Amino acid sequence: MEYEEIIERIQRVITEPVKPIPEEILEKEKDEYFKINARSFEIYEEAKGLIPGGVEHNLATTNPFPLAMDRAKGYKIWDVDGNEYVDYLLCGGPIILGHHYEPLDNEIIKLVEEKGPSTGLTNEYEILAAKKIIEHMPGVEMVRFLQSGTEADMAALRVARAITGRQKVIKVGGGYHGWYDQYVWSLHIPGTGALNSIGIPPSVFELLIDIRPNDFDALEKAFEDNKGEIAAVVVEPVGGESGAHPVHPDWNKRCRELSSEHGALLIFDEVVTGFRLDMGGAQKYFDVIPDLTILGKIIAHGYPSAGAVAGKKEYMEILGKGMGQEPYIGGTLAANPITCAACYHAITLMEKNDAIKKSTEFANRLVNEMNSLFATRPDIPFFLYNFGPIIHYVTTAFFMVDLTSPKAVEIFKRKELAEEYQIVTSNMGLNALAGTRMYTCMQHDDEALEKTLKAWEYLLSLIPKS
User: Fold this and answer.
1) Which of 67, 148, 188, 441 has the most CB within a 10 Å radius?
2) Structural domains of the chain, ranges and CATH numbers in brackets
3) 123 secondary structure, DSSP code
4) 278 assigned to active site
5) What is the pTM (predicted TM-score) of this model?
6) Out of 176, 303, 393, 439, which one is annotated catalytic?
């Protein structure tokens, strides 16, 4: 689906009245949710006294309560109550070979059994993993491993400021770059500003320039009004929240041109897109080469403590200049053997299995079939679009509501409605990011497709025709 059609269809979802499930039917679905997830509810009730909010995971469904998972295999995941789901969350994106993929797991088990999990010192897998990343990503000549995508985002800013001697950073509203202070501005939804910044001194944002997605004039004005002061532009190359605010076809190219023209570094946050959209990341997919690349959970295929800042040698070398002469970054578990071995073997197995091609083929098929299903209900403007195996399903478009419009007050109602849809599809055996995103892996098959279509067909049957 082309950019113009995606935006047009999103606007239709926003402008038309929402499509709620009748209250009496919704209550029955909620009762069913409680009934089939009794053990998850017990765990949640206990967790509330031990963990703030009773849940640790940003991607977990929380309405009416989060599910506790037990195990996963292939594209399937099972909760502690024994319910089976087609998993489209896939640990937030890094699972491309499939859950509990034995050829990968066996390598990690062998590593731990023979060598132990970590020493806090250099291991050979650092070199092997770095070579694999560099081999595929055209904008990467050196790699520094860290422990999460958030850490990598922090490091990229530090490198950009050290290289340029400048302080200001341009961030695109709605983009997600972890929970680091300066990135928690206009989080998720453009124009929300300081909404999520409690606990952060306001002065932190004095060096941040917030522009709206795909606003070419604002991007140019930001550079013109701050000549010689911009250290970097940081973007999610498929659009904020990895495509929830879909990128204009010319946006990345223009960011590259203006960054080069004004001596700023272009940073691509590829925490989701690297080794999912393409083996060479979004930079290869769009043929736009950033100066720095941010990688996260994606590089270790779900194994923990995974992140990296990577990029051109002329910029990355500053991280190795010696005590006092370099931006200070680190971490005891950064570049540990498990993470680096998982990175090396996962990328090798993805090459061997053509995993991204298979994941993309299923995603394309799912999007087409789902859009055909939604077309049977012309009164309901639901639709899907995808960037390869990154799928966005639009039912309420709560991320896209303009906060300057009278409809801004609808955001929370729209989010709540998307969560109500999620209750129904969860009862039918689907696991996804509520109201926004699905990921596919190379193991999704006809059975997964059939179950997905059946769940959504049932949901549509619950919404009265208008």
Assistant:
1) 441
2) 3-82+354-462 (3.90.1150.10), 102-352 (3.40.640.10)
3) -
4) no
5) 0.96
6) 176
